[in-house]
Amino acid sequence: MSTFADSSLLVKLYVSEEDAGYARSLDDLVVSQAARVEVPAAFWRKYRMGVLSVAEAGQLVWEFEADYYGTATEEPRFAVVELSDVVLDVAAQLAGIHGLRAYDSIQLATAKVARSADPDCVRFAAYDADLCKAAVGEGFQLIP
User: Fold this and answer.
1) For the chain, which residues make up each domain, given as ranges?
2) Which residues contact 108 (CB under 8 A, 6 or more apart)?
3) What confidence tens digit (pLDDT) does each residue in 16-40 have?
4) Residue 144 has pLDDT above 90, yes or no
5) Nearest to 142 by CA among 9, 33, 24, 18
6) Which of 1, 28, 54, 77 is the most buried (most CB within 10 A)?
7) Measured between alpha carbons, how far is residue 56 from residues 34, 48, 60, 61, 114 in Å?
8) What is the pTM of this model?
9) Helices H, strands E: what count in the chain?
């Protein structure tokens, strides 16, 4: 069974935060192409806040990109769902239905599109209360 992972969960794969161990235990992660921007942005924000050094933030971006794209010796860690017109149309609808911010709407829409392609993608992992509530409203099983 695959799990859709929001960027808030993906950050925990790389930064030692609460629930990082749980996040790191998950396999078969499906992610939105939007994570390509959101996750590095979170690392650089942590740098600006003084939580990470510039070297640490750069290293985490490199590690994420290696997982996202794969390397010469390893396949990508994530199944990436592209930001298609369908995803954006669904996101626009979800923003109104659930009152979500733009990127949260895109994340949930991506999960719905992934589930339509793979009915076993029913788990949703995020650390954003509004997004989690909307995901439950759309029939997803929250984890943790």
Assistant:
1) 6-143
2) 91, 94, 98, 100, 131, 134, 135, 138
3) 988 899 999 999 999 999 999 999 9
4) no
5) 9
6) 77
7) 22, 12, 6, 9, 32
8) 0.93
9) 7, 5
